[in-house]
Design goal:
The complex is a heterodimer of chains A (331) and B (325). Chain A has 331 residues and is mainly α. Chain A is 74% helix and 3% strand. In chain A, strands 1-4 form a two-stranded antiparallel ribbon. A two-stranded antiparallel ribbon of chain A has the order 2-3. In chain A, helix 4 (61-75) crosses helix 10 (198-208). The relative contact order of chain A is 0.18. Chain B is built from 15 helices and 4 strands. In chain B, a hairpin with a 2-residue loop joins strand 2 and strand 3. The chains are: A mainly alpha (331), B mainly alpha (325). Chain B: Keywords: Cell membrane, Membrane, Transmembrane, Transmembrane helix.
């Protein structure tokens, strides 16, 4: 297969304009979502119910919030594997502040602030010291969660005030949870940021060719730094929501979130190599992952088995278009 | 700085010696030969895994599924042993290498034939393999009572004063040394990492070589699966959970460049040994094991900063000004 790439010639016109390719991807995702939704409805009598569907959203909103920022980061050609560890550290520091009598606004401030600080630290290491983000964030992942372990050991923090719990358990109206509203608002903001602003265009430019972007006057380092801070910010927000929802902090909190968030991003059609992707795709992918895990949960499928489905979904959804393209080229 | 990169392994070895001496100053028994051999034995599995991971990283790929592969192969071999205690252990070990190799080959085929980035493929197979451990075991554990005595005792036997487990690591390291320095495949692995395009023109099949790298990493994971299970005498879904990052950490500390093309067998071994020494030293100097994670995280960051300083002068010179280096 690799040999053919040697003899590949430039086509007269591009095979598939980017726009239609993305639209095609999103259509595929919508179809997948509809199929899973339908299967769920038939498979479990408890699925089609406003409260069930509301519970469903708790399954993915925290990870999806991170996925929104992660999408921008991956489009710019970087990655952050430390997001779950940031949640652990932010949650631990919130718990620590709680022991000193901090009230809800302070707790939220500490959670979000820790997130931004961690993101800035990643951003500094990657852009300031010019290190590869995948290694840096594997390191900070151990470091951040390691600090949480140092502080907490095998203990846990409990006893968050009710006004704080509302962020993770409260409803804005009827079955519409605060988490869901926050996610939808964030999705709109990120959509505008990526697809409707100069900043977003620059993110794409960096991901496609950062040297060319630099020649065009884009401040590559600064934008990447901002993206790391944004990812940290969203992780901090996710930490507030998750801590409020669970009502306790353990150092092992949010274990594995980074992989699920990246799965959502890649499933959403964002190229892991950078330079392409859309927020709508990521939102759809988050919905699909939520639907799959919730549907299987209703069928009493254990969480660990669900990971087989999400893992397979990730590979199959990416492999299918490639296989299709290969088949078409051969025909 | 140049000297530092030239003798990176030497400096890492020195760092390990410094740690050992520092601990010894307070606890003289730490550097007794028997304790040092224990540390080596404790680190044997990580050393083998780091070598497997190195081969993959050299080709500009990454294998996040090694720990899950280890858990799956380990569960399979434990269940086989529990069900058929009569099967000779060497057969089981060969089986582990084949099963692990097959799982690695699955990664490799996706990377080779479908050109999916390795990080995506192995992210997917990581969850699939780990899920399969649960499926085949039904969530149950296989414990010491169900394993045959031979299965547990093999690696604890001694040969020339060293535990068999250590010998496994030594033999695997020797094989990797031959592979990397004496075979065409070894050269190709480096070539692909340094410059994939030039490799194609040289006649190297890049995809196939990556496929082989993943298969090798898988085979090592499979072998490590048996060794891990028989060492800790428990097979469960949670075996080696999160260990994939420790393996990568060992490589990074050992000077294997995540950008591909740079890394040696000695470096990967020392990287693993460094983590092993730290892990063994912490309880001795009375630091809570909960510090372990933060310390290895800091070690990774420090290593990557130091390594990057050395690598900076290599590679593309054309756009140096433009890149603002």
């Amino acid at each position: 297969m690799t040999d053919t790439s040697l003899h590949r010639q430039l086509p007269d016109r591009l095979d598939n304009p980017l726009r239609s390719a993305l639209l095609g991807w999103q259509t595929l995702l919508v179809l997948v979502a509809v199929v899973i939704f339908t299967v769920n409805s038939f498979a479990s009598p408890y699925f089609l119910n406003a409260w069930s569907l509301s519970d469903l959203t708790f399954n993915f909103t925290e990870k999806a919030l991170i996925a929104l920022a992660m999408a921008l980061l991956i489009i710019s050609g970087e990655i952050d594997l430390s997001v779950a560890a940031i949640i652990a550290l932010a949650s631990t520091l919130m718990g620590l502040a709680l022991q000193f009598g901090a009230d809800t606004p302070v707790l939220v401030l500490i959670g979000v602030g820790t997130g931004i600080a961690c993101g800035a630290f990643n951003g500094f290491l990657v852009t300031g010291l010019k290190l590869p983000s995948i290694v840096v964030t594997i390191g900070t992942m151990s470091l951040f969660r390691g600090i949480a372990f140092i502080v907490l050991g095998d203990q846990s923090f409990k006893g968050y005030p009710a006004s704080f719990s509302w962020f993770g358990q409260g409803y804005v109206w009827w079955v519409i949870s605060f988490e869901l509203v926050l996610f939808l608002v964030a999705a709109v903001i990120f959509y505008v940021l990526l697809h409707r602003t100069n900043f977003g265009r620059r993110v794409f430019a960096i991901g496609n060719n950062d040297v060319a972007a630099k020649f065009s006057g884009v401040r590559v380092e600064r934008i990447k730094f901002i993206l790391f801070c944004l990812t940290g910010l969203m992780s901090g927000i996710a930490a507030v929501l998750l801590t409020a929802r669970l009502g306790s902090t353990r150092p092992s909190i949010a274990q594995g979130f980074e992989l699920e968030a990246i799965t959502m991003v890649v499933l959403g059609g964002v190229s892991i190599l950078g330079g392409a992707g859309s927020i709508i795709g990521v939102v759809l992918a988050a919905l699909i992952v939520g639907l799959v895990t919730f549907g299987l949960g209703l069928l009493n499928v254990p969480g660990i088995v669900m990971t087989i489905f999400t893992g397979s979904l990730l590979i199959v959804v990416i492999a299918l278009p490639i296989l299709f393209k290969m088949w078409r080229q051969r025909a | 700085m140049k000297a530092l990169t030239k003798h990176r392994e030497l400096w890492l070895a020195l760092a390990i010696v410094v740690v050992v001496i520092a601990v010894t100053l307070r606890f003289p028994r730490f550097s007794q030969p028997s304790n040092l051999l224990t540390i080596f034995n404790d680190t044997s599995i990580l050393m083998m895994l780091a070598l497997g991971q190195m081969v993959v990283i050299l080709t500009r790929s990454i294998d996040l599924s090694m720990a899950a592969n280890l858990a799956l192969t380990g569960m399979i071999v434990a269940m086989v042993n529990a069900a058929f205690p009569g099967v000779p252990i060497p057969v089981l070990i060969a089986g582990c290498i084949v099963v692990g190799g097959a799982l690695g080959a699955f990664n490799g085929i996706l990377v080779w034939k479908l050109n999916i980035p390795a990080i995506v493929v192995t992210l997917g197979t990581l969850t699939i393999f780990r899920g399969l451990v649960f499926v085949i075991s039904g969530g149950a554990w296989v414990n010491a009572a169900q394993m045959s005595p031979d299965f547990i005792q093999l690696q604890r036997g001694a040969f020339l004063g060293l535990p068999i487990l250590s010998w496994f690591a030594i033999v695997v390291a020797a094989l990797f040394y031959v592979l990397m320095t004496r075979t065409a495949l070894g050269r190709s692995l480096y070539a692909i990492g340094v410059n994939p395009t030039a490799s194609v023109y040289t006649g190297i099949n890049v995809g196939r070589t990556k496929f082989l790298a993943f298969t090798i990493a898988g085979a090592v994971s499979g072998l490590a699966g048996y060794l891990w299970i028989s060492r800790y005498v428990i097979a469960s879904t949670e075996v080696a959970s999160g260990y994939e990052l420790t393996i990568i950490a060992a490589c990074v500390i050992g000077g294997v460049s995540i950008a591909g093309g740079i890394g040696t067998v000695g470096g990967a071994l020392l990287g693993a040994l460094f983590l092993g020494v730290i892990n063994n030293a912490l309880p001795v100097i009375n630091i809570s094991p909960f510090w372990q994670m933060a310390i290895s995280g800091s070690a990774i960051l420090l290593a990557v900063v130091l390594n990057a300083r050395g690598e900076r002068n290599k590679g593309r010179v054309i756009l140096k000004k433009a890149e603002g280096v």
